[in-house]
Amino acid sequence: MSEFDKSYLSSSNITYVDKGASLTYLHVSNNGASVTYGPDKATKSDVKDVDSDCNHIISTSSAVQLNSKFYKKSHHLVFSQINLSTKEYDLMALLFSRIQKAHWKYYQEHENVKFTPKYRFSNQVLSDWFGVDSSQLYSLLKGPSKTLSSKPVGILNEQKKGFDFVPLFKRITYENGELIMSPNDELSDEWLTVAGGHAQVDHVIFRKLARRYSKALYEMLSRFKTSGKGKLNTLSLKDLYAGFGLLNADGEVSKRVMKKIKCLWRTV
């Protein structure tokens, strides 16, 4: 057992197989439901980060746990019909910099499992990411977290002439100095960039951009750059409008946002 807290394991009804210095299997049971992690990705953090509903919580207490420079964002999300503020963009970038396919492995392999990963970020990580003192985080995060938690994303399918609007998150919570983001599992393919291509975005540069349209354009340019050559594919105006969140539910630009478009070309 060595480094593991025996009392915690006992009280949380977690059983395990401990081989050497690493935990190779983690089994969690709660009210008759059971979940097993492993053998490849069960770690000490998994033991401490399973909540009462058997949701696997991915903790981030240090910036070194984030992707060092780049995050991936699916093509559909880059060009989805969603209008984000600068801080909402930065929150999304933070989450994408932590998400790994291994976190969702068990959920994807068992269709009847209802739990999905939650992502928890410490005050220190948040302070570093947003470049503010921890005392400012509550006021900084409250507004964008509230709007982002209820904001739907529109996934467009031009070939089939269809669209699908789905909430991005189940819940976003800030308490005890920690931010917990719960992605909607109905968008798991988009969170994990499973198909359809993706943008590889330099989050260091991305976070320095001060305007939301600049951030949207940077993600689009990152989607179509050719590795090592810097070439870009041709973008239609409709793709641009979708990427900037200027289309309505019918996929059209409304008169109400025409002023935004004029502002857009002045700011990007």
What keywords describe this structure?
12 helices, 268 residues, globular, alpha+beta, three-stranded antiparallel beta sheet, 2 domains
What's the CATH class label of the largest domain? Mainly Alpha
> Count of helical segments?
12
Number of strands: 11
Q: Report strand order across the widest sheet.
A: 4-6-10-9
Q: What is the CATH topology assignment of the largest domain? A: Arc Repressor Mutant, subunit A
Which structural class do you get from the secondary structure elements?
alpha+beta
User: Rg from C-alpha positions?
Assistant: 20 Å
Question: Would you write up a description of this structure?
Answer:
With 268 residues, the protein is of the alpha+beta class. The protein folds into 2 domains: 1-49, no CATH class; 55-267, Arc Repressor Mutant, subunit A (Orthogonal Bundle). Helix content is 34%, strand content 24%. The chain has helices spanning 6-11, 44-48, 75-78, 86-96, 105-109, 123-130, 137-149, 188-191, 203-208, 212-224, 237-243, 258-267, and strands spanning 14-19, 22-30, 33-37, 57-60, 70-74, 118-122, 152-157, 162-167, 169-175, 178-183, 198-202. The strands form 4 sheets. It has a 4-stranded mixed beta sheet. Strands 1-2-3 form a 3-stranded antiparallel beta sheet. The protein is globular. Residues 1-53 have low confidence and may be disordered.
